Amino acid sequence: METLMRNVFQSLGKNAAAHKLAKRYGLRFGAGRFVAGETIRQAIEAVRTLNADGRIATLDHLGEFVSSEAEAREAAEMCIKTLEAIAEAGVNANLSLKMTSLGLDISKELCMQHMRSILACAKSRGNFVRIDMEDYSHCQVTLDILRELRQEYDNVGTVIQAYLYRSEQDIRDLNDIRANLRLVKGAYKEPAEVAFPDKADVDANYKKLIKLHLDNGNYTAIASHDEQIIEDAKRYIRERGIPGDRFEFQMLYGIREDLQRRLVQEGYKVRVYVPYGVDWFGYFMRRLAERPANVWFVLKNLFK
Ligand code: FDA
């Protein structure tokens, strides 16, 4: 039953018609628990609240799988507006983005052009941009683009997914550019040809990748709500005396706030991923797929 629900949410998350419909009707079904709002102002307010108790943030203007150049340009402009709003408000946040929203599926050149303007804007404001990792079909091109951009900009990093067999080699290869990486389990539905089908294998690989990247001396964002993973990382960091400016923990907006606060109290750097915007549907479906128990939460909101 759980697998069935997971598959339904993952397929819905890729459905363009459902995305359009959701956009038209606004934040619904309790999506507001995971999405900070539809406007920049609401997103900045959410960051202010997080900053007030010591948590920092990464803002994501939601959007993915755009099909026209105009939509891609609009998404790039929103990224720049978000960076400007962060600077104007003086809040502690950087930017996360998805390159399919910048026209990656239209052409790599178009996406690179947008990435360069976004990175130049971030650089002039002393800020950093994280390229989220999307489904497997975009993995290689994402890493290729990161490599190219790193020749011009040092304020960019990406994400590596522990469920992919290739990730260990990718981390080893990315060592030559001292890549700043967010390490995650992986949120998309991938076939067994490319990804570990069993959760236990994903978890074991995740622990291994965290240690590998930390040992390489590169900046490591450990992005998980899994206490076992977090405890394992904390233990390793303590044993190896890894300094606090080499790593951070990251969690998603609205998930395990108790754990976020506890880590801050223990003195760790905690960054919360704060998504906002009208294109919330795909993001929301991935959060439901990760934890089908969340569906009760959706049902409750249907009748509100
Ligand atoms: P796991 O799924 O095992 O969950 C551990 C525990 O966390 C659960 O038992 C539950 O308590 C809680 N939990 C997890 N998900 C929940 C949810 N949706 N609702 C309520 N509770 C939940 N993926 C990707 O493919 N590309 C990317 O770029 C990113 N970026 C990213 C940024 C940040 C900051 C985070 C935290 C995560 C991502 N992810 C991602 C998503 C990631 O791949 C993964 O799907 C989720 O983090 C869930 O995995 P956990 O490591 O939390 O463990």
From TrEMBL:
Reaction catalysed by this enzyme: L-proline + a quinone = (S)-1-pyrroline-5-carboxylate + a quinol + H(+)
Coiled coil feature spans: none
Domain Proline dehydrogenase: 44-298
Pathway: Amino-acid degradation; L-proline degradation into L-glutamate; L-glutamate from L-proline: step 1/2
InterPro entries: FAD-linked_oxidoreductase-like, PRODH_bac_arc, Proline_DH_dom, Proline_oxidase
Cofactor: FAD
Assigned EC number: 1.5.5.2
UniProt entry keywords in alphabetical sequence: FAD, Flavoprotein, Nucleotide-binding, Oxidoreductase, Proline metabolism
Protein name as it appears in the record: proline dehydrogenase
Organism, as annotated: Gordoniibacillus kamchatkensis
